[in-house]
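Structure tokens please, single chain.
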Amino acid sequence: MFFRLLLTAVLVAAPAFAQRGGGGGGGFGDTSGMPMLTNRLETITQILQLTKDQKKYVKTTFDEAQKEAAPVREQLVKGHQAIGEAVQSGGSPEEVNSLAAGHAALEARMARIELEAFAKVFLQLDKTQRSSSLPLFQMMKGMFLEKNWNALQ
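Here you go.
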């Protein structure tokens, strides 16, 4: 009797264990339900359905913008630290305001670099890609604040 019950349970459960889901794999290494990490270029390529030439253009454009942004990024970090130090040491309001104004100018410079890079890429897109470019526009803010714009997301 016990043997029959065990055999029935195995036969009923076997199809459930045999199913792998749509992604293949299965078991402990199955990552089909988990999002895959990709770099920004791959994300942009997927969102806009870029051609090979467009992908190359995006990479070149953003690499150049990253180089232009590097000294601004360094100045932003130093400026932010200077503002914090001035506030902590009891600096005058004029000193803090002056440092904050300098920091704001750097932020504006960085925004210009980001928006110019976006505009260059946008002009290379076809009509369908342009209509799908809002996510790219949203990705641009702060893209060059890291050392590598194409970092994993």
